[in-house]
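Annex B. Sample input.
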Amino acid sequence: MESERKKKTEGIQKQEGTVKPERTEGREVMERHLLSSSKSLLVMAVSLAILLYCVAILKVNPGVSLILSALSAVYLGMAFGCPWKQFENDIGDTFKTMFMGMLIMMFVGILIGSWMVSGTVPLMMYYGLKLLPAPIFLVASCLLCCLMSLMTGTSWGTMGTVGVALIGVAEGLGIPVAYAAGSIVVGAIFGDKLSPLSDTTIMAPYVSGVDIIDHIKSMLYTTVPCLVISLILYAVLGMKFQGGHIDSQAYSQILSTLEGTFNLNPILLLPPVVVLVLIFMRKPTIPVFGIGILLAAVLAVAVQGKGIKEVLSAMTSGLGISTDMALVDSMINRGGLLSMMPSVALIIGAAVFSSALKATGVFQMFLDAIQKYATGRKSLLGFSYLLHLILASFTGVYLVTFSIVGPILGPMFDKYDLDRKNLSRMLEDTGTAFSPIVPWSNISIFILGTLGVSSFQYVLYAPITYLGVVFAAIYIITGFGIFNRKGEMLIKEKK
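Annex B, continued. Sample output.
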């Protein structure tokens, strides 16, 4: 009886009804009203239709679209008997998960503004223009972001610092920013997925019950081929810029404008060096970014001769100066806290939408379907990939779906004699890697806010975001790269 009651509390039963409250750590949990699968499916269909119609057809702001979609799920859920308190609690839980991400985003905006006014990012742009010829720029930028993300474990930090500088270099070299953004995203995601310092690389094996080193080794099967294909693509794209396609006069003017606007002293590299060292030492991200901001503020005053008010203004709304060269203005007038506010609003919308789907049982509906219809290894793997791809795409917050899907599917992988590292790799392929091309995902929103390029623009030039799922499908069909619990690859498994 006790085990049956616990199953009901976890929402595994399929019938509609309410779940009695339990006491957890001395605190009573409210009753949850569970919708039937058909009603959950209706909620999902209506909310998704509204989201896609607003974003894809009407071109409405994704934040507004997410809020409207969430409201439709809330109203339908309440009409079917779900109390508002149920939604309120789930929204609060989701915000706890996402709050630090939003705070980091705000700090990145301030960091970029401070590094602009100090001359740190302009100096990095200047060196990039001098040292990275256009034909090899995309390959070099991808590898540079790979290295930084691998060492630091943060794709967001990589894109928000080096990535911003590389976008400016691309503009100066006459390379389409969509190309540059694709190479930056691929490099940042590649390093993030394989770095033992990354939060996703830690969380995916943790929720799946896998050793982190085994997880990283498994990730190589989908990640390395994607990187190789990406580098070949960038080498081919770089050939477009052979033979003097760049306006040499404009190129020289950009360099002279940067030299005339900023005091390009090598000491300006101190903030990024300190930040990279501290992140590599696994110091907390926000205090580290704070040090980077303070160092840049001191350099802005000491090296650039800026006043405190100018520095604080740049931290708030970006640099905002005119150099009489529009291209340079677009390169350096970036960053500031306010530049991140639209992105923060979008993440709030994603959190509300995700919470509404969870509260109305959409997540549980998919999980129940897998438990019912997965009858073998291939079907389990296929359903698992499809499930997490859908949930992570719906919500735009893969860390939330990691914690839901991983623990529930783990025992099913054991049942079918599949190593759980197949599960942890699936979470990253369909979450960490795929989310940058979901327009309302938190990382896609972050990229738009920092690099100024939407997912629709760079998707074709970021193969790692979609080829990981393609390779995964091939492996499921062939058995290559899929392991049983003895560590044997299924394609070599003895019958």
